[in-house]
Amino acid sequence: MPEESALHGASTAARRARRGIVLLTFAFALSQFYRSCLAVMAPELQHDFGLTAAGFGSLSSCFFLAFAVAQIPVGIAFDRYGVGKPTALLLAIGAVSSLLFTAAPNGTVAMLAQAGLGLACAPVFMGLLHFASEHLSERNYTRVVSQSNATGMIGALCATAPLGWAMHLLGWRVAMSFAALCMVVACYGVWRFVRDEGHAEARHVPLWPMLSQSAKLLAIAPLWTLIPMCVAMSAGTAFRNAWSGPYLANVYGLDSGARGVALALLSVSGFLTAFFLPVLVRRSSLKTTIAAWSCLAMTGAIFLTVWPASGMVSGVGLMALLSTIGMLHPLIMAQGRGLVPPSSRGRGLGVLNTFVFLGSALTSWGFGMIARMGELQRWPVSKTYATIFLAAAVMVVLAVVPYLFSPSPKRS
């Protein structure tokens, strides 16, 4: 009887863990949608809100800036209270913000709504990582998280051709109303079914010492070999999520439907890459895979720098290659996971994620400033985007060099 009771308890815990991972993966797919949707809507949003290129860069950066600022507080909350309650609370803010964005009368309100959506999406992927790290073995962690990361790309795919077609038929406000409904569903699902607790050790530590301990994580020297790579992922993700749409509209003259189809190819490439990377990890190593794939993605930026308007097919293909650097996110988090103690894992992932999304915010804003400079200097459109791609390539180079000195994770 005691053995049967123990087996039943283990089975119930496994079912709850699976259900929690499924719900957090759904929320992550929604997060991917909101990260990516502005690219398809960019020209329409600039027109409706009267935004310059720099203004659109600011709009897109609001999401990622709020996302970045929330990472360490969210990591502390995970260590103290678990994943479920903090995530549900922030998703509730996202439900309100998603409705606000659909009704936004101007750019200022839209930026406020984007900041709220950034806060809502901030805990989702880190919550998935943290929840999985608490409920899965070391052997299964990278596989399951990589699969969830790939599945989450469905959200990014929905933000391409399906969103473009919906915009063409119904307008962007109606299309985004459905996404707002999904945000409400995600909030309820996480609140109702993701039940976990934080670490007792962390729960009894006062807030200020926890903040201090989070800052002290930056003293872990090996983390600084990963942090530049965290930032460099934005070379692909910030362009895909915000500037790929303007690039296709300004260089190739594509409308919303055609842009959606082209961007769907970027999401499909990300989806396939997310499944392929764990295979490379098994056949080589985590560190080798990250370094090699970063260099491969960088070649996309280099070719686009030299030939920014060589043709729509090659442009979309090279853009897709560059954007796949963002698929390294779970692998880098898996490597960073081994560098911090279990009781500080939420804060450790929070620190790394802060740099990931701070990089996205600053990169999106920086690309906007380059685009604005191109407008003021009357550059040809191709020269403006060549400069943006050059900046992306330089970011990756500056990250790969220190990453080569990162500690090699132990095989489990």
What's the shape?
globular
By CATH, the topology is: Growth Hormone, Chain: A
The fraction of residues assigned to DSSP E strands is: under 5%
Q: Uncertain spans, ≥5 residues at pLDDT below 50?
A: 5-9
Head-to-tail CA distance between termini: 34 Å
The domain tally reads 1
Could you describe the largest sheet, including whether it forms a barrel?
A: none
Please compute the radius of gyration using only Cα atoms.
21 Å
Instruction: Look at the structure and give the CATH class.
Output: Mainly Alpha
The ordered string of helix (H) and strand (E) elements is: HHHHHHHHHHHHHHHHH
Structural class of the secondary structure composition?
mainly alpha
Number of DSSP helices? 17
Mean of pLDDT: 85
Helix content: over 70%
Number of strand segments: 0
For this structure, what is the CATH homologous superfamily?
MFS general substrate transporter like domains
Named at the architecture level, the CATH assignment is Up-down Bundle
Notes on the protein architecture:
- This protein has helices spanning 2-49, 53-81, 84-102, 107-135, 138-158, 161-170, 172-193, 200-203, 207-216, 223-232, 234-252, 256-283, 286-306, 312-323, 329-337, 345-376, 381-403.
- It is mainly α and 412 residues long.
- It has one domain (2-403): MFS general substrate transporter like domains (Growth Hormone, Chain: A, Up-down Bundle).
- α1 (2-49) runs antiparallel to α4 (107-135) and α2 runs parallel beside α4.
- The longest helix has 48 residues, at 2-49.
- It is globular.
